[in-house]
User: Which sequence fits this backbone?
């Protein structure tokens, strides 16, 4: 009986071993953001800096001309560049220019108005960043 049990264990052990099949390695493809996605990330960082300067009572400097690239940066989905997008992008630029040219007394209000124009645009297309954008608002 011991011999049968031992033989059975050896047979099970041999059949349970599998030859390792090597899977071909997948080539990693790095995600590359569109020009617009990169611009919007830069605008987010710039606006976070502006927010912090406003809260600290520091001067915010000059309007960053790179924001004007919003009118011609390549979108992730080119079909999103429609009349609505064009209207919102013009409004955003006007609002941001008002942040830089307006009075110190209206700085927070103008800044929040500019950020709200971002939110309004994203409510029509590409809703994903809205929670992140809302973090820019000054309460």
Assistant:
């Amino acid at each position: 009986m011991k011999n049968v049990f031992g033989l059975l264990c050896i047979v099970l052990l041999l059949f349970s071993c599998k030859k390792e099949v090597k899977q071909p390695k997948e080539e990693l493809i790095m995600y590359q953001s569109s020009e617009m996605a990169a611009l919007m990330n830069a605008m987010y960082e710039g606006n976070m800096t502006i927010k912090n300067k406003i809260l600290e009572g520091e001067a915010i400097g000059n309007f960053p001309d790179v924001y004007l690239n919003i009118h011609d940066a390549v979108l992730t989905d080119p079909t999103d560049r429609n009349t609505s997008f064009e209207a919102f992008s013009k409004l955003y630029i006007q609002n941001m220019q008002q942040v830089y040219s307006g009075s110190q007394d209206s700085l927070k209000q103008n800044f929040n108005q500019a950020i709200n124009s971002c939110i309004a645009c994203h409510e029509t297309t590409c809703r994903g960043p809205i929670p992140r954008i809302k973090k820019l608002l000054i309460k």
